[in-house]
Amino acid sequence: MTLKNDRFLRALRREPVDYTPVWLMRQAGRYLPEYRETRKAAGSFLAMAKNPEIACEVTLQPLRRFPLDAAILFSDILTVPDAMGLGLYFVEGEGPKFERPVRTEADIAKLAVPDMETELGYVMDAVRTIRRELDGSVPLIGFSGSPWTLACYMIEGGGSKDFSKIKAMAYSQPALLHKLLGVVTDAVIAYLSAQRLAGAQALQVFDTWGGVLSPALYRDFSLRYLQRIAKELKRGEGAQRTSLILFGKGNGPYLDQLANSGAEGVGVDWTVSLEDAVWRTKGKVALQGNLDPTTLYASPDAIREQVRESLDSYAHGNGGSREGHVFNLGHGMSPDMNPEHVAVVVDEVHTYSKR
Ligand code: CP3
């Protein structure tokens, strides 16, 4: 099927586009009243994510409001450890938690790659349902957490402020942590490959917590595994048609290594300028980002100004060309953001970049 809007995929291939494509991390979520309504009827976030029809509905909600250039699968990165038997649940106001976190050598020895069409079949069904309903309007992005970020939740048992348990393991039992990261990486590769087979047209890895590591630990415990994912995804069915984006919060110091990983795109947060990011990754990858999400709390005029600054920063670094830029926030949206301000971002990206 030919896509009606392939700007996002073209930008990832660094091909010319008539305007810069935009999508927003966490574009489906609690800031939308229709999401809150669907969630209330379904009972919980997990009930939504595990029902392909509801996951599809929620994926489409932001696209009905805003002319976004891509859809992202409504799911979560923690579906993979859940399928590995850790027992994912959410506590209101506290975020995700695991009933059975991974702490000992015996816990790690028990872990295996889940079966993608049974244990994670609901995700693949959601991908197929969304592709059918999108009907070629925009491409669908599939995603996974990075091995390091998934391991953070698996070992800490939930969110963390200081990541003390996993970092203690990195320093005192590195071989054990590598064993865990190895099996999680196998699962991530299988998960992304299965989403691609089910119909995902681009893939993103969220390395949300890579930035909490020292450079030496980042290289050993995060980057290494991202490189393996990028390399292994080059094989297999659909590899030629799908681009991979490596997003990492706090990945500024590592842009050159990420650009050399074999991924087609690198997602950057707002702590680096796009001009600088282009300069450091020149010619090797497309860049995705990087409006500070809190810009959405500002006035519409201030938002427009910041969007233009981000677009211009990219073009300035790229010899005046907007090719190879996917506009996004530098991190995900928050529940208290104003949907009208999202409309302002999307409109300014499209109108300003078209000139
Ligand atoms: O971008 C999208 O719209 C796609 C859906 C998506 C969700 N989570 C939906 C979700 C994606 C890509 C994620 C990824 C994710 N999940 C990450 C990495 C993303 C990043 O920004 O770096 C992480 C760290 C998680 C783990 C997780 N899941 C957290 C921290 C939370 C929030 C918990 C809370 O109470 O605020 C979730 C739940 C979650 N995942 C929600 C959504 C829309 C909120 C669910 C709700 O309460 O309705």
From TrEMBL:
Please give the InterPro entries that the UniProt record associates with this protein.
Answer: UROD/MetE-like_sf, Uroporphyrinogen_deCO2ase_HemE, Uroporphyrinogen_deCOase
Task: Identify the residues that the record assigns to the Uroporphyrinogen decarboxylase (URO-D) domain, covering every copy.
Answer: 21-30, 141-157
- Spell out the residues of the site Transition state stabilizer: D76
Known Pfam families for this protein?
Answer: URO-D
Q: Where does substrate bind?
A: R26, Q27, A28, G29, R30, D76, Y153, T208, H331
| Assigned EC number | 4.1.1.37
Catalytic reactions of this protein:
uroporphyrinogen III + 4 H(+) = coproporphyrinogen III + 4 CO2
**Pathway(s) per entry:** Porphyrin-containing compound metabolism; protoporphyrin-IX biosynthesis; coproporphyrinogen-III from 5-aminolevulinate: step 4/4
The alphabetical list of record keywords is: Cytoplasm, Decarboxylase, Lyase, Porphyrin biosynthesis
Coiled coil location: none
Q: Using the UniProt record, name the top-level EC class of this enzyme in a single word.
A: lyase
| Main localization category | cytoplasm
Domain of life (superkingdom): Bacteria
Q: Where in the cell is it found?
A: Cytoplasm
Q: Which GO terms describe its molecular function?
A: uroporphyrinogen decarboxylase activity
One GO-annotated biological process of the protein: protoporphyrinogen IX biosynthetic process from glutamate
Q: Which PROSITE patterns match?
A: UROD_1, UROD_2
Q: Where is this region: Disordered?
A: 313-333
Keyword Cytoplasm in the entry? The reply is yes
Q: Can you state the subunit structure given in the record?
A: Homodimer.
Q: Give the record's family classification.
A: Belongs to the uroporphyrinogen decarboxylase family.
Q: Any idea what job this protein has?
A: Catalyzes the decarboxylation of four acetate groups of uroporphyrinogen-III to yield coproporphyrinogen-III.
Q: Which HAMAP family match?
A: URO_D
Output this protein's name: Uroporphyrinogen decarboxylase
